[in-house]
Amino acid sequence: MAVFNLNINGKQQQVDVDPSTPMLWVLRDHLNLVGTKFGCGVAQCGACTIHLDGIAVRSCITFVDSVGDKKITTIEGLSENGDHPLQQAWLEHDVPQCGYCQAGQIMNAAGLLIANPHPSDEDIETAMHGNLCRCGTYTRIKAAIKTASNSE
Amino acid sequence: MTIVKTKIDRRSFIRSSVLAGGGMLLGFSWLASSCSTNTPKELSMPDEWFEINGFLKIGENGLVTIMSPNPEIGQNVKTSMPMIVAEELDVDWKNVIVEQAPLNTDIFTRQLAGGSQSIRQSWPALRMAGATAREMLRQAAAQKWNVPIEEVTTEAGILIHKNSNKKVGYGEVASAAAGLPVPEEVELKEIDDFSIIGTSRKNVDGFKIVTGQPLFGLDYKKEGMLIAMVAHPPAFGMKLKSFDATDAKAMPGIKDVFVVKTYNDDYELQWSDITSYNELVAIVGNTTWEVMTAKLMLNVEWEPISDSNRMNVPAGLESTADHIKKMTEAGAKTGREVRRDGDPEAAFKNAAKIVEQIYTAPFQAHNTMEPMNFFADVKEDEAVMAGPIQTPEFMEKTLAARLGLPLEKIDIQMTRMGGGFGRRLYGHFMVEAAVISQKVKAPVKLVYSREDDMTYGIYRPAYHALYRAALDTDNNLIGFHVRMGGIPSSPLHANRFPAGAVDNYLAESWSIDTNISTGAFRAPGSNFNAVAEQSFLDEVAEAAGKDPIQFRLDLLKSAQENPVGERNDYDAARYAGVLEQVREKSGWESGASDKNRGVAAYFCHNSYVANVVDIEMKDGRPVIQKVYASTDCGIVVNPDAAVNMIEGSIVDGIGHAMYSGLTFNEGQPEQENFDSYRLIRHAESPKEIEVHFVKNEIDPTGLGEPPYPPVMGALANALYKATGERYYHQPFVKNTFEA
């Protein structure tokens, strides 16, 4: 076990965990931030997507000892009032069915828009390739990303 | 005006006795969601809630809480079921809070997510719940104003007496209304007067979903809760031999390691109790990662089962190659005759042309994005359970039997489910969680890893179908023969189209036993039938030199005007209706078309769906440019959500037909995570989906399953146009595109 000081959603947090613990479980089990979802554990589904310094990463393979002082953003901290353009667009398009993958989809899309504020359809498909939606809401996800990118 | 007796559903109107004297304060649950487009915190909560009946309560400020009785698996019933109550109650939707009801068989009937039946079967009860409450509110206002109830009208949560110009909000008379007797009969709204049903309302959990608030079983937490995982045998047909827990127990955070027996030997399994692995090794600890890590240190020996009455194939460990061989053999032999019309043998003997094809589909894992999990807090005299389950009513009985507790001491909270697709009809994981909690005497959340989830599945069976069609010299379909089977069950629906449309018809069925656990998977049976049958009909239409839509419509016309046999379980006119609509909306041209288009239509779970799929080939790979859908599901309760469900079904159907399959080697699933099990991804889904509904005033039928099967047939037929090859074996990607 070791103590880690983490910057999560703009707040300093301290956890005492095994250094090999993935950020996914640090967030979910130790910090009660359960918006980041467990889907596969091997970076194949994207449900656990968070940001490190604004870059979308899979928290299930991001070990706590690799984070250092990078700024972590989770779905809970993407916006203060749940009004990030993507969150608004997601509601406008009523994207979710079961909803389980959607936080990861939004975080991945938010990473895309930071790097590329006005992505083409192909840019969206490429960037979102690693995020599975078992309910098949891909067409709405794409529409919501386009709405959000146009609103900025 | 429709007057209905409330009697048949009076069971639903039992009120808790404490309410007799007036109001009761009820807590605001984490399972509650606001229908307002604003965030829940902007609503001012009432000081008191008055329970009018089991479905709804009204606050003194006019806010209304409507209970959503059925499990939510993404089919959006948590929004659409309360919409039906709100419609008859006549309340402004933005003043409604929706709360997931707990399992309560005293108040609600059929709290189950399955068979696309939630809306269809609850339609009368939900309307009556709202209408009854409205009637009681009118009665309370009539008494308050001392006027006849007939003179009291309502408008969006306001009671009005027009003659005296008096108005009062529901909240102000809710206390009085709650004390009134339940009326004997109530008036239901005319369809033309609907103002909520038929209008698009956003998912009531939408804000929570996009902001990552706790909603799902895996998010459930309780003070002092431990985490558990289980190790199951690596292969179907194997069982636990021995284990050494020393190393695992020595790992940090680990509390205990022990054997869990899911069902007792003398317990008679009900349909929702499927278990392949009755003895598991449980690892219990403080945190998920600690338990996952310790699980790797577990030394377990497994052995083939040699003599167990739970075994279907005692000889043991099955491989996909054996399955294919067995299915090929079974498909070549005469099966069990299920339906016969006319003289099919003679029709084939006299045929000018015979078309014959074989279709297959592999086992498939449900792969809900939220893996199996459940919270259990089992004490000596009660059990509190919370998590994702499609069959809480059935599992309550199983748990009572397994834990030795009376039914009323089993409390089941239904969390929002990260997908169901049929997998969570089978709640063995719930029993495992309960038994573990009982053993460690602490609240426990059982968590399956993705590998646990995919390799201990209740899979979609593997299927095989032989289709034959006899055409006469004028290219009329004079004989039709289907022989279908599967491991372990046949998907045959012998009384569906084209039964009833062909004079000489034969349907046969067969099945082969297996040790592999299987069960319902979105549109069971239909999820294969539609592909095979609709691909086959396309080939028959081609052989007959007919346009594939007109060919089907001619058959449906014949089934409508001159049906063969008496047990045909579809409405030929509604079937034709969706085909006609999709033909019009897609601008279908008979004869030569520069588009690679395929069509299919199917009926299942009481609804009718037709699709046209357009494909373009790019770099040797198919790109699905557009899918058209036409659906007849009766009255559409929540149109945009229905469109979403159909879009998702189309993506899901294309995905499973194209990419997904589970293979076995010596009883062991060869895919165990998404790196080897292919699911459809963003770029592979259709670029555009256009959804239409056939408008009518028929009571609503289901939508969770019906839009899933037909698109697979339309896909196969479009692929044929695009590549010149027919696609008989799923997943299609294995045929050509994946070298």
Automatic annotation (TrEMBL), chain A:
Top-level lineage group: Bacteria
Gene3D superfamilies recorded: 3.10.20.30, [2Fe-2S]-binding domain (1.10.150.120)
SUPFAM superfamilies: 2Fe-2S ferredoxin-like, CO dehydrogenase ISP C-domain like
UniProt KW Metal-binding keyword: yes
Protein's name in the database: 2Fe-2S iron-sulfur cluster binding domain-containing protein
High-level lineage: Bacteria, Pseudomonadati, Bacteroidota, Bacteroidia, Marinilabiliales
GO molecular function, one term: 2 iron, 2 sulfur cluster binding
UniProt keywords, alphabetically: 2Fe-2S, Iron, Iron-sulfur, Metal-binding, Oxidoreductase
TrEMBL record, chain B:
This protein's record includes keyword Transmembrane: yes
PROSITE patterns, per the entry: PROKAR_LIPOPROTEIN, TAT
Source taxonomy: Bacteria, Pseudomonadati, Bacteroidota, Bacteroidia, Marinilabiliales
Record domain Aldehyde oxidase/xanthine dehydrogenase a/b hammerhead: where: 211-306
Keyword terms, alphabetized: Membrane, Transmembrane, Transmembrane helix
Keyword flag Methyltransferase: no
Gene3D superfamilies linked: Aldehyde oxidase/xanthine dehydrogenase, a/b hammerhead (3.90.1170.50), Aldehyde oxidase/xanthine dehydrogenase, molybdopterin binding domain (3.30.365.10)
Membrane-spanning residues: 12-32
Organism encoding this protein: Maribellus comscasis
Alphabetical list of Pfam families matching this protein: MoCoBD_1, MoCoBD_2
Protein name, UniProt field: Molybdopterin-dependent oxidoreductase
PANTHER family reported in the protein's UniProt record: ALDEHYDE DEHYDROGENASE (PTHR47495:SF2)
